[in-house]
Amino acid sequence: MNAIEGYLSGGVAVVTGAGSGLGAAMARRFSAQGMKIVALDIDGPQAESVAHGIRMAGGGATARRCDVSDRAAVESAAREVEAQFGQCSVVCANVGVQQFGAIDRLSENDWRWVLNVNVMGVIYTVDAFLPLLRKASGPRHIVVTSSSAAYSPGIRMAAYTTSKYAVTGYAETLRMELANEGIGVTILFPAGMSTHHLQSSQKARPTELGPSLINREDIDAMMASRGIDVGGHVATADYATRHLIADLAENRRYIITHGDCRQVITSNAEELLAAHDRAQLE
Q1: What are 217-259's pLDDT values in tens digits?
Q2: Of 160, 165, 239, 254, which residue is the catalytic one?
Q3: Is the C or the N end of the chain the one with fewer CB within 10 Å?
Q4: 160 within domain boundaries
């Protein structure tokens, strides 16, 4: 085992959204490092399925149903982790739900649902588990899952994109505030993945908010507006997490999981610099 492979060995990793997709892949990565896993997901059986797979592979994992938009539920999960392990060394605030639709067709319930889960869910997760990180010795990290939409936005996904801009700003500030404590904060920017994200989003929406409707035309319009080539921008969750451990060992500020977005990132930066330079003119 090399230095990076043993970097997090013996620690405890808490992963929200661990029942499938990116969260499940991250949980497996941390388990392969010799970490104990706490898999949290609004779909309890799915979380247990991931934990069971880790245990069958020789790792240690527990699972619990947890709706991150419910502060009390997240705080309860944190108390259970403290009772069982005393602390944790990695927290992945990874939950995100998606709602497509033109801005003038998004309802107030659409906005509240997406922002409550994607933004407040991250805040609740960090608030609940930060005390346990502070109690841990050795490497300590928080991973906040943003999205490629935060630097490459497209039409018909305003609620989701807004939420990911918000958590990016939150994580940037969190990184600065925790730096002197030696707790690293890394922002993960996944692009499209071959997962069941849309279906799990629909399933997770509270019934009192009405159904989450998916219109194929909205998805096609979004992809066209972002110039997305499915072959280059869609990958498996396992592929998307391939550099996760090495990047955490280097305390990287950003991780872009896959997809070639250099042109749009460069264009955005150039426009911002040009605006800055105009501001310097008398």
Answers
A1: 656 666 666 665 555 567 899 999 999 999 999 999 999 999 8
A2: 160
A3: C
A4: yes
